[in-house]
Please model this.
Amino acid sequence: MQTSATSATSAFSTIITNAPSPAKLFYIDNLKVALTVLVILHHTFITYGAPGGWYFTDKTTHTAALIPMTIFVATNQSFFMGLFFFISAYFTASSLQKKGAVRFTADRLKRLGIPLIFYSFVLSPVLSYIVYRFTDKHNITYLQYLSGFDGWIDFGVLWFVAALLLFSLIFVLINLSGPKETVPLQKSPTALKIILFAAGLSAVTYLVRIVFPIGWVLKPVGFQLGHFPQYIAMFWIGIATSRNNWLNDFEYKTGKLFAWLSVIMVVVIFPVLFVVKEVTHSQVETFNGQGHWQSLMYACWEQFTGIFIMVALIIIAKHKWARQSTLMKAGSRAAFAVYIFHPLLVISLSVLAIGWPMDPAYKLLIVAPLAVAFSFLLAYLLTKVPGVNKII
Model:
Protein backbone atom coordinates (compact mmCIF):
# COMPACT_ATOMS: atom_id res chain seq x y z
CA MET A 1 0.00 0.00 0.00
CA GLN A 2 2.83 2.36 0.84
CA THR A 3 4.60 1.59 -2.44
CA SER A 4 1.42 2.31 -4.40
CA ALA A 5 0.92 5.66 -2.67
CA THR A 6 4.54 6.62 -3.31
CA SER A 7 4.21 5.70 -6.96
CA ALA A 8 1.04 7.76 -7.33
CA THR A 9 2.65 10.76 -5.68
CA SER A 10 5.68 10.40 -7.93
CA ALA A 11 3.56 10.27 -11.06
CA PHE A 12 1.46 13.27 -10.03
CA SER A 13 4.45 15.33 -8.97
CA THR A 14 6.24 14.81 -12.27
CA ILE A 15 3.28 15.70 -14.45
CA ILE A 16 4.86 19.07 -15.17
CA THR A 17 8.21 17.62 -16.23
CA ASN A 18 7.20 17.20 -19.87
CA ALA A 19 4.24 19.56 -19.79
CA PRO A 20 4.00 21.56 -23.00
CA SER A 21 3.03 25.19 -23.05
CA PRO A 22 -0.49 25.07 -24.52
CA ALA A 23 -1.01 27.34 -27.48
CA LYS A 24 -3.83 29.84 -27.46
CA LEU A 25 -6.91 27.67 -27.61
CA PHE A 26 -9.85 29.80 -28.68
CA TYR A 27 -12.38 27.05 -28.06
CA ILE A 28 -11.28 26.83 -24.44
CA ASP A 29 -11.79 30.59 -24.10
CA ASN A 30 -15.19 30.26 -25.74
CA LEU A 31 -16.15 27.47 -23.35
CA LYS A 32 -15.06 29.64 -20.43
CA VAL A 33 -17.44 32.39 -21.55
CA ALA A 34 -20.31 29.91 -21.97
CA LEU A 35 -19.69 28.44 -18.51
CA THR A 36 -19.64 31.91 -16.98
CA VAL A 37 -23.02 32.65 -18.55
CA LEU A 38 -24.31 29.38 -17.06
CA VAL A 39 -23.13 30.46 -13.61
CA ILE A 40 -25.18 33.66 -13.86
CA LEU A 41 -28.23 31.78 -15.12
CA HIS A 42 -27.77 29.10 -12.46
CA HIS A 43 -28.05 31.62 -9.64
CA THR A 44 -30.91 33.46 -11.34
CA PHE A 45 -32.85 30.21 -11.72
CA ILE A 46 -32.31 29.48 -8.01
CA THR A 47 -33.61 32.97 -7.23
CA TYR A 48 -36.88 32.26 -8.98
CA GLY A 49 -37.65 28.68 -8.09
CA ALA A 50 -34.94 26.08 -8.66
CA PRO A 51 -33.56 24.27 -5.60
CA GLY A 52 -30.45 25.68 -4.00
CA GLY A 53 -29.23 28.35 -1.63
CA TRP A 54 -28.84 32.01 -2.60
CA TYR A 55 -28.79 35.45 -0.99
CA PHE A 56 -32.36 36.27 -2.02
CA THR A 57 -35.17 34.17 -3.46
CA ASP A 58 -38.55 34.99 -4.96
CA LYS A 59 -39.69 31.51 -5.91
CA THR A 60 -42.55 30.56 -8.16
CA THR A 61 -44.98 27.87 -7.04
CA HIS A 62 -46.01 26.73 -10.52
CA THR A 63 -44.98 23.13 -11.17
CA ALA A 64 -44.80 23.75 -14.91
CA ALA A 65 -42.00 26.24 -14.26
CA LEU A 66 -40.32 24.44 -11.36
CA ILE A 67 -39.69 21.22 -13.29
CA PRO A 68 -37.57 22.75 -16.12
CA MET A 69 -35.84 25.02 -13.58
CA THR A 70 -34.89 21.99 -11.50
CA ILE A 71 -33.65 20.04 -14.53
CA PHE A 72 -31.59 23.04 -15.65
CA VAL A 73 -29.94 23.54 -12.26
CA ALA A 74 -29.34 19.82 -11.66
CA THR A 75 -27.77 19.39 -15.09
CA ASN A 76 -25.59 22.48 -14.60
CA GLN A 77 -24.44 21.26 -11.22
CA SER A 78 -23.41 17.95 -12.72
CA PHE A 79 -20.71 19.47 -14.90
CA PHE A 80 -20.12 23.23 -14.99
CA MET A 81 -17.89 23.65 -11.93
CA GLY A 82 -16.02 20.45 -12.72
CA LEU A 83 -15.30 21.82 -16.19
CA PHE A 84 -14.10 25.09 -14.65
CA PHE A 85 -11.59 23.10 -12.57
CA PHE A 86 -10.50 21.18 -15.67
CA ILE A 87 -9.91 24.35 -17.69
CA SER A 88 -8.05 26.03 -14.84
CA ALA A 89 -5.84 23.00 -14.27
CA TYR A 90 -5.12 22.52 -17.96
CA PHE A 91 -2.87 25.59 -17.93
CA THR A 92 -1.48 25.05 -14.42
CA ALA A 93 1.35 22.66 -15.29
CA SER A 94 2.78 24.80 -18.08
CA SER A 95 2.44 27.95 -15.96
CA LEU A 96 4.34 26.36 -13.08
CA GLN A 97 7.04 25.12 -15.44
CA LYS A 98 7.39 28.55 -17.04
CA LYS A 99 7.35 30.68 -13.89
CA GLY A 100 8.92 28.40 -11.30
CA ALA A 101 7.47 27.60 -7.88
CA VAL A 102 8.11 30.96 -6.19
CA ARG A 103 6.78 33.19 -8.96
CA PHE A 104 3.88 30.84 -9.69
CA THR A 105 2.84 30.82 -6.02
CA ALA A 106 3.14 34.60 -5.73
CA ASP A 107 1.05 35.03 -8.88
CA ARG A 108 -1.66 32.67 -7.59
CA LEU A 109 -1.78 34.42 -4.22
CA LYS A 110 -2.22 37.77 -5.98
CA ARG A 111 -4.67 36.73 -8.69
CA LEU A 112 -6.79 34.51 -6.44
CA GLY A 113 -6.08 35.70 -2.91
CA ILE A 114 -6.86 39.40 -3.45
CA PRO A 115 -10.32 38.68 -4.96
CA LEU A 116 -11.07 36.42 -1.99
CA ILE A 117 -10.22 39.19 0.46
CA PHE A 118 -12.16 41.76 -1.58
CA TYR A 119 -15.26 39.58 -1.84
CA SER A 120 -15.27 38.66 1.84
CA PHE A 121 -14.60 42.09 3.33
CA VAL A 122 -16.10 44.44 0.72
CA LEU A 123 -18.57 42.82 -1.66
CA SER A 124 -20.18 40.27 0.66
CA PRO A 125 -21.37 42.87 3.22
CA VAL A 126 -22.80 44.98 0.39
CA LEU A 127 -24.76 42.02 -0.98
CA SER A 128 -26.09 41.15 2.46
CA TYR A 129 -27.10 44.77 3.07
CA ILE A 130 -29.02 45.01 -0.20
CA VAL A 131 -31.13 42.01 0.78
CA TYR A 132 -31.54 43.16 4.41
CA ARG A 133 -32.46 46.73 3.47
CA PHE A 134 -34.68 46.27 0.45
CA THR A 135 -36.36 42.90 0.96
CA ASP A 136 -36.71 42.78 4.73
CA LYS A 137 -37.60 46.51 4.75
CA HIS A 138 -35.13 47.52 7.45
CA ASN A 139 -34.72 51.28 7.08
CA ILE A 140 -31.10 51.64 8.20
CA THR A 141 -27.95 53.00 6.58
CA TYR A 142 -25.10 50.87 5.37
CA LEU A 143 -22.84 52.06 8.19
CA GLN A 144 -25.51 51.16 10.75
CA TYR A 145 -25.78 47.74 9.18
CA LEU A 146 -22.01 47.22 9.35
CA SER A 147 -21.98 48.04 13.07
CA GLY A 148 -23.82 44.79 13.72
CA PHE A 149 -22.45 42.74 10.83
CA ASP A 150 -20.59 39.57 11.88
CA GLY A 151 -20.21 37.59 8.65
CA TRP A 152 -16.86 38.96 7.57
CA ILE A 153 -15.34 35.65 6.48
CA ASP A 154 -17.64 34.71 3.63
CA PHE A 155 -16.28 33.69 0.24
CA GLY A 156 -19.74 33.26 -1.29
CA VAL A 157 -19.46 32.23 -4.93
CA LEU A 158 -15.69 32.57 -4.66
CA TRP A 159 -15.50 29.23 -2.86
CA PHE A 160 -14.33 28.06 -6.29
CA VAL A 161 -11.43 30.52 -6.21
CA ALA A 162 -10.51 29.39 -2.70
CA ALA A 163 -10.54 25.74 -3.79
CA LEU A 164 -8.53 26.51 -6.92
CA LEU A 165 -5.93 28.34 -4.83
CA LEU A 166 -5.75 25.39 -2.43
CA PHE A 167 -5.41 22.85 -5.25
CA SER A 168 -2.71 24.95 -6.93
CA LEU A 169 -0.64 25.29 -3.75
CA ILE A 170 -0.91 21.55 -3.08
CA PHE A 171 0.23 20.88 -6.64
CA VAL A 172 3.28 23.10 -6.11
CA LEU A 173 4.17 21.30 -2.86
CA ILE A 174 3.84 17.86 -4.44
CA ASN A 175 5.96 18.95 -7.38
CA LEU A 176 8.69 20.31 -5.10
CA SER A 177 8.76 17.27 -2.83
CA GLY A 178 8.61 14.53 -5.45
CA PRO A 179 11.30 13.04 -7.68
CA LYS A 180 11.84 14.54 -11.12
CA GLU A 181 12.11 11.49 -13.37
CA THR A 182 10.31 11.64 -16.70
CA VAL A 183 6.87 10.07 -16.86
CA PRO A 184 6.05 8.39 -20.20
CA LEU A 185 3.21 10.00 -22.12
CA GLN A 186 -0.09 8.16 -21.91
CA LYS A 187 -2.52 7.55 -24.76
CA SER A 188 -5.80 9.42 -24.66
CA PRO A 189 -8.55 7.48 -22.86
CA THR A 190 -11.02 5.52 -24.95
CA ALA A 191 -14.76 6.04 -24.65
CA LEU A 192 -14.96 2.88 -22.53
CA LYS A 193 -12.31 4.14 -20.13
CA ILE A 194 -14.15 7.45 -19.79
CA ILE A 195 -17.37 5.60 -18.95
CA LEU A 196 -15.53 3.44 -16.40
CA PHE A 197 -14.00 6.59 -14.92
CA ALA A 198 -17.50 8.04 -14.51
CA ALA A 199 -18.58 4.82 -12.78
CA GLY A 200 -15.67 4.96 -10.35
CA LEU A 201 -16.31 8.63 -9.65
CA SER A 202 -19.96 7.83 -8.97
CA ALA A 203 -18.98 5.26 -6.35
CA VAL A 204 -16.52 7.62 -4.64
CA THR A 205 -19.09 10.42 -4.67
CA TYR A 206 -21.69 8.16 -3.07
CA LEU A 207 -19.28 7.14 -0.31
CA VAL A 208 -18.22 10.72 0.40
CA ARG A 209 -21.85 11.81 0.63
CA ILE A 210 -22.49 9.28 3.38
CA VAL A 211 -20.55 11.68 5.61
CA PHE A 212 -20.94 14.93 3.65
CA PRO A 213 -24.37 14.97 1.95
CA ILE A 214 -25.34 17.57 -0.61
CA GLY A 215 -26.04 20.80 1.21
CA TRP A 216 -23.42 20.23 3.93
CA VAL A 217 -21.08 23.22 3.78
CA LEU A 218 -17.63 23.59 5.28
CA LYS A 219 -17.75 27.07 6.81
CA PRO A 220 -16.46 29.71 6.40
CA VAL A 221 -14.88 28.71 3.06
CA GLY A 222 -18.17 27.46 1.60
CA PHE A 223 -16.94 24.07 0.33
CA GLN A 224 -19.72 21.55 -0.34
CA LEU A 225 -17.53 18.49 0.13
CA GLY A 226 -20.19 16.23 -1.38
CA HIS A 227 -19.26 17.68 -4.79
CA PHE A 228 -15.50 17.69 -4.28
CA PRO A 229 -14.68 14.19 -5.61
CA GLN A 230 -15.52 15.48 -9.10
CA TYR A 231 -13.68 18.78 -8.57
CA ILE A 232 -10.50 17.07 -7.40
CA ALA A 233 -10.71 14.49 -10.17
CA MET A 234 -11.23 17.09 -12.90
CA PHE A 235 -8.36 19.22 -11.63
CA TRP A 236 -6.06 16.20 -11.86
CA ILE A 237 -7.49 15.22 -15.26
CA GLY A 238 -6.89 18.75 -16.52
CA ILE A 239 -3.21 18.52 -15.65
CA ALA A 240 -2.91 15.02 -17.10
CA THR A 241 -4.66 16.13 -20.30
CA SER A 242 -2.24 19.02 -20.74
CA ARG A 243 0.79 16.87 -20.08
CA ASN A 244 -0.29 14.11 -22.50
CA ASN A 245 -1.76 16.31 -25.25
CA TRP A 246 -5.03 14.40 -25.07
CA LEU A 247 -7.04 17.26 -26.57
CA ASN A 248 -5.26 16.70 -29.89
CA ASP A 249 -6.33 13.06 -30.10
CA PHE A 250 -10.12 13.06 -29.70
CA GLU A 251 -12.20 12.73 -32.85
CA TYR A 252 -15.41 14.59 -33.50
CA LYS A 253 -17.44 11.36 -33.57
CA THR A 254 -16.42 10.71 -29.96
CA GLY A 255 -17.83 14.09 -29.00
CA LYS A 256 -21.11 13.30 -30.76
CA LEU A 257 -21.31 9.95 -28.97
CA PHE A 258 -21.02 11.59 -25.56
CA ALA A 259 -23.45 14.33 -26.61
CA TRP A 260 -26.09 11.67 -27.31
CA LEU A 261 -25.29 9.91 -24.05
CA SER A 262 -25.74 13.26 -22.27
CA VAL A 263 -29.15 13.73 -23.88
CA ILE A 264 -30.22 10.27 -22.73
CA MET A 265 -29.07 10.99 -19.18
CA VAL A 266 -31.01 14.26 -18.99
CA VAL A 267 -34.12 13.47 -21.05
CA VAL A 268 -34.64 9.81 -20.15
CA ILE A 269 -32.82 8.93 -16.92
CA PHE A 270 -33.51 12.08 -14.90
CA PRO A 271 -37.32 11.64 -15.18
CA VAL A 272 -36.79 8.08 -13.90
CA LEU A 273 -35.33 9.55 -10.71
CA PHE A 274 -38.45 11.67 -10.33
CA VAL A 275 -40.69 8.63 -10.83
CA VAL A 276 -38.69 6.71 -8.21
CA LYS A 277 -39.12 9.60 -5.78
CA GLU A 278 -42.88 9.68 -6.30
CA VAL A 279 -43.44 5.90 -6.28
CA THR A 280 -41.36 5.34 -3.13
CA HIS A 281 -42.63 8.54 -1.46
CA SER A 282 -39.02 9.52 -0.84
CA GLN A 283 -37.95 12.87 0.54
CA VAL A 284 -35.51 14.94 -1.53
CA GLU A 285 -32.97 14.55 1.29
CA THR A 286 -32.71 10.81 0.64
CA PHE A 287 -31.13 11.61 -2.74
CA ASN A 288 -28.54 13.87 -1.15
CA GLY A 289 -26.52 11.28 0.73
CA GLN A 290 -26.21 9.60 4.13
CA GLY A 291 -26.04 6.14 2.58
CA HIS A 292 -29.56 5.97 1.16
CA TRP A 293 -29.92 3.83 -1.96
CA GLN A 294 -31.60 6.79 -3.64
CA SER A 295 -28.41 8.81 -3.11
CA LEU A 296 -26.47 6.13 -4.99
CA MET A 297 -28.87 6.52 -7.91
CA TYR A 298 -28.46 10.28 -7.89
CA ALA A 299 -24.67 10.14 -7.55
CA CYS A 300 -24.53 7.83 -10.57
CA TRP A 301 -26.85 10.05 -12.61
CA GLU A 302 -24.94 13.20 -11.66
CA GLN A 303 -21.43 11.91 -12.37
CA PHE A 304 -22.26 10.04 -15.56
CA THR A 305 -24.17 13.08 -16.83
CA GLY A 306 -21.43 15.49 -15.80
CA ILE A 307 -18.57 13.51 -17.35
CA PHE A 308 -20.51 12.89 -20.55
CA ILE A 309 -21.38 16.59 -20.95
CA MET A 310 -17.83 17.73 -20.20
CA VAL A 311 -16.32 15.35 -22.73
CA ALA A 312 -18.92 16.26 -25.37
CA LEU A 313 -18.44 20.00 -24.89
CA ILE A 314 -14.64 19.88 -24.99
CA ILE A 315 -14.43 17.68 -28.09
CA ILE A 316 -17.22 19.34 -30.06
CA ALA A 317 -15.92 22.82 -29.19
CA LYS A 318 -12.44 21.78 -30.33
CA HIS A 319 -13.77 20.82 -33.75
CA LYS A 320 -16.57 23.37 -34.20
CA TRP A 321 -15.78 26.39 -32.00
CA ALA A 322 -12.11 27.02 -32.72
CA ARG A 323 -12.56 30.61 -33.88
CA GLN A 324 -13.03 33.61 -31.65
CA SER A 325 -15.05 36.71 -32.48
CA THR A 326 -14.28 40.13 -31.08
CA LEU A 327 -17.22 39.82 -28.69
CA MET A 328 -16.08 36.43 -27.42
CA LYS A 329 -12.54 37.72 -26.98
CA ALA A 330 -13.81 40.55 -24.81
CA GLY A 331 -16.05 38.13 -22.93
CA SER A 332 -13.16 35.79 -22.25
CA ARG A 333 -11.04 38.64 -20.92
CA ALA A 334 -13.87 39.73 -18.61
CA ALA A 335 -15.00 36.25 -17.49
CA PHE A 336 -13.17 36.21 -14.14
CA ALA A 337 -14.51 39.64 -13.22
CA VAL A 338 -18.00 38.49 -14.22
CA TYR A 339 -17.67 35.52 -11.88
CA ILE A 340 -16.73 37.82 -9.00
CA PHE A 341 -19.33 40.55 -9.53
CA HIS A 342 -22.34 38.77 -11.03
CA PRO A 343 -24.03 38.31 -7.62
CA LEU A 344 -24.24 42.10 -7.33
CA LEU A 345 -26.16 42.29 -10.62
CA VAL A 346 -28.36 39.23 -10.02
CA ILE A 347 -29.35 40.40 -6.53
CA SER A 348 -29.85 44.05 -7.50
CA LEU A 349 -32.04 43.21 -10.49
CA SER A 350 -34.11 40.63 -8.61
CA VAL A 351 -34.63 43.05 -5.72
CA LEU A 352 -35.76 45.74 -8.16
CA ALA A 353 -38.23 43.24 -9.63
CA ILE A 354 -39.89 42.40 -6.31
CA GLY A 355 -42.87 44.65 -6.96
CA TRP A 356 -43.46 43.64 -10.54
CA PRO A 357 -47.07 42.39 -10.93
CA MET A 358 -46.22 39.00 -12.40
CA ASP A 359 -45.32 35.50 -11.33
CA PRO A 360 -41.62 34.99 -10.47
CA ALA A 361 -41.26 32.57 -13.38
CA TYR A 362 -41.94 35.45 -15.79
CA LYS A 363 -39.50 37.67 -13.91
CA LEU A 364 -36.83 35.06 -14.63
CA LEU A 365 -37.30 35.58 -18.36
CA ILE A 366 -36.52 39.29 -17.94
CA VAL A 367 -33.96 39.32 -15.13
CA ALA A 368 -31.78 36.48 -16.46
CA PRO A 369 -30.74 38.08 -19.78
CA LEU A 370 -30.34 41.49 -18.10
CA ALA A 371 -28.11 39.94 -15.42
CA VAL A 372 -25.92 38.35 -18.09
CA ALA A 373 -25.64 41.53 -20.16
CA PHE A 374 -24.96 43.90 -17.25
CA SER A 375 -22.53 41.50 -15.56
CA PHE A 376 -20.36 41.33 -18.66
CA LEU A 377 -20.65 45.08 -19.23
CA LEU A 378 -19.55 45.88 -15.67
CA ALA A 379 -16.74 43.33 -15.85
CA TYR A 380 -15.52 44.69 -19.17
CA LEU A 381 -15.34 48.21 -17.74
CA LEU A 382 -13.46 46.95 -14.67
CA THR A 383 -10.85 45.25 -16.84
CA LYS A 384 -10.05 48.69 -18.24
CA VAL A 385 -9.24 50.15 -14.81
CA PRO A 386 -5.46 50.43 -14.26
CA GLY A 387 -4.29 48.24 -11.40
CA VAL A 388 -7.56 46.34 -11.23
CA ASN A 389 -6.84 44.77 -14.61
CA LYS A 390 -3.62 43.33 -13.17
CA ILE A 391 -5.70 41.13 -10.89
CA ILE A 392 -8.91 40.41 -12.78
Summary: The CA atoms of residues 63 and 69 lie 10 Å apart. The two ends are 43 Å apart (CA to CA).
